[in-house]
Design goal:
Chain lengths: 113, 113
């Protein structure tokens, strides 16, 4: 089954404690991205990757890092989480960039206290 | 700057009634346009997309949308809603120059029995 898998689904952490949210897709997609979803703000892109070793900033990249060492994986790293990073995070992948369907993971709800 | 506006934050309709969700975009060229649906606790799923050609596009779950260039709109419609259509709906535009997708803030659809 074609899918995008994020882990964990829920995470509560403390300020400053480094964390990684994993994202893996099994569709051999080139394009992957991370979004955060906040009430009243919709989805905002954090980072995206057009292929292995190619990543770029989205609209709200501050406080986040990503890597794309393998085509299937695109982890999101919070080196020093802060409470304003409490949010619902989605990973998405697509075959191309704009003109193809994006497949979304089920989301990771992160709370930073 | 490119933008997507969904004027209605919440919409409530009775089961069996018709539905129209509004979406307006701001973009200098013919955009790629999408509608996604997010069911509670789930990621986003593509309902339909428009790239070119026939301005009335059919999607999954009985939805359709019409691209109107003169009004910069891409409204989503369904002739008769079902209780399972209760969800949040996102309109999105693909920005070719910046190689990214911009999402609207979403419209939450409530269905009355």
């Amino acid at each position: 089954e074609a899918q995008v898998t994020q882990n964990p689904r829920y995470l509560i952490t403390v300020t400053g404690k480094k964390l990684t949210v994993t994202c893996s897709q099994n569709m051999n997609h080139e394009y992957m991205s991370w979004y955060r979803q906040d009430p009243g703000l919709g989805l905002r892109q954090i980072y995206y990757s057009m292929n292995v070793e190619v990543t770029d900033k989205g609209d709200v990249p501050e406080g986040y890092k990503v890597s794309r060492k393998e085509k299937r994986n695109f982890p999101l790293i919070l080196e020093s989480p802060s409470p304003n990073q409490t949010s619902l995070y989605f990973c998405a992948s697509s075959k191309g960039n704009l003109n193809t369907e994006a497949f979304f993971g089920q989301g990771t709800r992160l709370t930073v206290v | 700057a490119q933008s997507v506006t969904q004027p209605d934050i919440h919409i409530t309709v009775s089961e069996g009634a018709s539905l129209e969700l509004r979406c307006n975009y701001s973009y200098g060229a013919t955009p790629y346009l999408f509608w996604y649906v997010q069911s509670p606790g789930q990621g986003l799923q593509l309902l339909l997309k428009y790239f070119s050609g026939d301005t009335l596009v059919q999607g999954i779950k009985g939805f359709e949308a019409e691209f109107k260039r003169s009004q910069s709109s891409f409204n989503l419609r369904k002739p008769s809603v079902h209780w399972s259509d209760a969800a949040e709906y996102f309109c999105a535009v693909g920005v070719i120059r910046d190689d990214k997708i911009i999402f609207g803030k979403g419209t939450r659809l409530h269905i009355l029995p």
